[in-house]
User: Fold this.
Amino acid sequence: SQTIHQWPATLVQPVGSPLSLECTVEGTSNPNLYWYRQAAGRGLQLLFYSVGIGQISSEVPQNLSASRPQDRQFILSSKKLLLSDSGFYLCAWSRGRLDTGELFFGEGSRLTVL
Amino acid sequence: SQQGEEDPQALSIQEGENATMNCSYKTSINNLQWYRQNSGRGLVHLILIRSNEREKHSGRLRVTLDTSKKSSSLLITASRAADTASYFCATDGTGRRALTFGSGTRLQVQP
Assistant:
């Protein structure tokens, strides 16, 4: 069966510090991978998606970047965090077409920037 | 930008009652999905309805889709306290590269 892991689950970072959130998927190959951000009590904002190694598409210009160094690994990074980067970050994967497949989500990483 | 918008934003009912949540969207879609999120957790897929379907059932869930009104509803029958969660609709569409989620309905089921 397929599983998705995200870490760390929670972190508190000062403004201007770097960020690295990691996501790995097990039990499937060549998944589509996504990073979403959820502000408190709000919906999900798509940040990045990837259809393959090294292929990253950004939906929103911002302070964040993403990388896919391996088929089932997706990393969200920032060189210098802003207060507005606080939120709940969710990694997800899907099969097949980007826009029609069921998404399988990780448990999320809660980031607080102080 | 948000494609789907849920209504109401929050809903509080008693156990055993039915809960109805609505989703409106703006552009043509191929399918619409509903997801559930327990507080502080990831989202879990509930049901997918295709644009050529009008109604779909899964256990206590009933989803309808009206493409002429660009709207969908999720009905949870005989609600339980364990149904307490946020519910989101998500839509795809021509040219859109990934699912777009609404802002969600927070459902509270009182025991």
Remarks:
- Residues 80 and 94 of chain B are 37 Å apart (CA to CA).
- The mean pLDDT of chain B is 92.
